[in-house]
Amino acid sequence: MRLFKYFIPFVLFFMYSSLLPAQLDRSTPPEAGPAPEINFENPPSFTLDNGLTVIVVENHELPVVNVQLTVDADPVKEGDATGYVAAAGNLLRNGTREKSKAEIDEAVDFIGADLYTFENGMYGSSLKKHSGELLELMSEVLMKPVFPKEELEKYKKKQISNLTAGKTNPSQISNRVAKKLRYGDHPYGELKTEASVNNITREKCLNYYNTYYKPNISYLVMVGDIQKEQAREMAEKHFGQWKRADVPEHNYEFPKDQRGRQVALVNKEDAVQSVISVTYPVKLDPGSPEAIPAKLMNNILGGGVFSGYLMQNLREDKGYTYGARSQLNTDPLVGYFSAGAEVGTEVTDSAVHEFLYEMNRIRSEQVDKEHLELAKSVMTGSFARSLEDARTMARYALNTKRYNLPSDYYAKYLKKTEKVSRQKVQQVARQYVKPSEATILVVGNKEKVRDKLQRFDPDNQVQLYTRTGEPVQESKAEVPKDMTAEKVIEKSIRARGGREKLNQVSDVKQVATTNMRGQTIVMKTFHEKPDKMASQMLMNGNVMQEQLFDGEKGVVRAMGQTRELSGKQLESMKFRAKMHKFLRYDELGVETSLEGIENVKGKPAYKVKVTNPDGVVRYDYYNVDSGLKVKTKRTVSGRQGKRTQSQIFSDYKKVKGIKFPFRIEISGGRSMTLKVDSIQVNQGIDDSVFQQ
Amino acid sequence: MKVKKLAIVVFILTFAGLSSLHAQSSKIQFEEFNMDNGLHVILHEDHSTPIVAVSVMYHVGSKNEDPDLRGFAHFFEHLMFEGTKNIDRGAYSRYVEKAGGTLNASTSSDRTYYYEILPSNQLELGLWLESERMLHARVDSEGVNTQKKVVIEEKKQRYDNRPYGSLMIEIMKRAYDKHPYRWTTIGDPDHIRSASIQDFRDFYQEFYVPNNAVLTIAGDVNKEEARSLAKKYFADIPRGPEDIYRPQVKEPEQQQEVRDTVYDDIRLPAVIQAYHIPALGTEDYYAVDMLASLLSEGQSSRLYQKLVDQKELAMQVRLMPMDMEDPGLALTFALPNVGVDPAKLETAMDKEIKRVRNELITDREMQKLKNQFESKMVQRNSSISRRAMNLARKYTYFENTNRVNTEIEKYRAVDKQDLKRVANEYFTPENRVVLYYLPQSQKKK
After folding, report:
1. Chain A CB within 8 Å of residue B309 CB
2. Which CATH superfamily, name and number, covers B32-234?
């Protein structure tokens, strides 16, 4: 849709409309007037003798002054006392050499000011007429804190209460666990817990403060109704005495980011919604030339308010959620991608599917022109609006310094946004949107969502985590000492109806159906002793694909092409076509070994490693109680690298006294569920079925 | 929209030079007028940033709902993004985003507010969009069915699946017996689910009319142009019925304390006290607002200092008067530290309330309150969009827009005796609801 087909100068249009008010045509949107200019300048900055960088943003709209101090230290590993860096920051304002906490509180409140201190920084705000007093207080808490022991104990008690209050908040649980799964051993992945808060000591806080709170790695940003020269004087006066010193630097390895897709679940029993987060770490420096295109790309996917792919699909089309969004965060050390929503429990798996669908879509399809233009306008408009607030200007100035951005980074921001092409969007999408490397984290009702989520994991495994991100070791049932692979297989033979009955089978014909993109597909398989086999895939009664083997020769037919099997493939076919091999593994040279017990669909199953004579390995899983085979899994190499394929068997029913699975879920590559409509045993099969 | 066509020029200009003309006065200049169809229009000019806020406040909230159709006002807020006669489904927000703007809406018990913030050359687009919404919004089954699902998920996300999320619902239904404040804006999903298209159309025709709305245009515009454009898009919208439903229910005075317990999926209990207070804009409301600050604004406030810092009973405590058109509530919300008996916390809260009822506050405290409110009044008008909203509210509730400028006088007029008087008048046990939130595990079987 074109909005601005006709160009009518603003004034002319205006006169016309006031002359002929009755003629108002409401069917099309009005023309825009000439665009306003967006002004951006880098605010002035200077450095004090002690190395403190000061940035001043003047804005005289309101008689208000804001002051922010940032200590730009590298993150440290806090280990079993995680939280002490934040504690050190918070406690700055809780007692100085001159004032108790109560005295500081009173001083701040009396002038109607705000003063917050936090991890590596502080923020103060007051009316201009009180800004001198505010700065004096800020200077005092920065340079003369005493970290009173009783204040630390109070702080710890509150922190533990706070953690307790958040324990049942699903989005908080999700944020914490996502952090841990995303960053692993990196300091960004450290979580505050009751235990770690208990380990915080005054010494740790004091040491941290003494080592890292130094002017030469810090930034003071002064914003509002203040002149530059006045700001310089005040900065000198209140922060000039702060002593410079060398500060240790730290480097960390980038978290493991090639780990394949995994599904992680945190159980919250009574949840009526699932909090979904599709997330992974990203290498994206704020100053990188990709940062702006990547931000634009993320806006198209899910950063915009209403128009993003995710919002349109999950909210406006499907009604699964109140809101679906994605974030692509830049960071000089480790950035992240995260797409998420809170969705109804019953649509959890459908919603995950749509997230992956949209993530794949932005990689595989070029964004259409209209949508790209819209995303650019959203970014341009949001940039223009952000300049209304002087604190945003200050943040931009601070980013420029902290992240070593080119000095004209923000001045050229709009031009750089405008230049991004459709190709570029797709290129950065392929680089930064990685559905196959994502952790799909769900916080929700385990009983209701777990099984449905298995299909998103290449291994069909949904790993459970605690609310603090520790993997749950599930009922690792011990394998009974006298149990062996042979015994497991014998038990399964008995469970299916017994060796005698199975030996009497001479042929099996199975008809199953599945659904693929709304189409019903029929799968027929024929098996005849000793080693004849055929399978067909039909759509609307037409054979789409078939594979035939008559005991000696085999062919594969697909899309009208016929290919005869030869060499290794033929040999493998000869082996595969042998009926009921499990009845005589010894004789066939198949080796088996019992690997342990793992859960399949939440139930313990023996895991048996099966090695064919040609060395090909697969794993079969047998339900510990019923003895029936519930799953088989193998790894295959394809063009896209190695992947795991698995089949899950359920709904066993008896045919001629023998149990067969009537439901088979296939995953890895294309996922589908086969529903068996009929199985016929020993009804005879026409030989022509197996022939070309 | 193409940015190039708009020829956005980025150039350097000193910020100080740009804005030093404006100044220190925190008075908001505005003009206003009525159209023949009853629409009230407020214009506020400010050229410091090239943006404009276009907003419409409809004087309808959940208190205007039929008790059998709870949640309608809020549901409408969702429906009003679905499109109009001339705007296809889903295109409403696209127009705004294409123009480089942003939009949203909110619903309270008393009003529903829609706004667009646009580059200032797109003023007319904003007016076209809002006039479409007022004149002929699309109320059809497709939009209604999708938004039904979305709103039901919104309720789960914000109220059902959050610790303490049901708090307002639980408080309001106990604090009010007759007045429609007894239900909250999210309403009842069953009512929303079972509502018919005709129910929605009736609601629209009654409340979404010019004589029930305030249009505000604020920002980088020329007032005269804005005035003409407002007329162009809104003057021919027909006036609606005069007998708009406004509940005249007066909640009977509460005679005795209401006390109850809610068991929730939480690990840490919470104590909530809700006192009935006078309506927004009454003389006593200002005194109550200041009393609330005395008790919980800043770390030197009485409740914070006593409960959090000195006795370490609470992790957090906050007293907030709700700014409601009809007599509302002042809510105290306290979270105890782990292991603290909520009853012990409540006793300590009560002690502070008794103190303000029995003793006058000190002169220094009074001065502190005045300083805090002076700062608050300045900061509350810090952006164009906040100013637009404050202007619209003052007209909607009081038909006196200039209250944005005169309210500070009301606060200045409050004295120590007033604080003691309102404490005794409203902060009494008979006049409150006390609710304990406790973990489900403590529920007696």
Report:
1. yes
2. Metalloenzyme, LuxS/M16 peptidase-like (3.30.830.10)
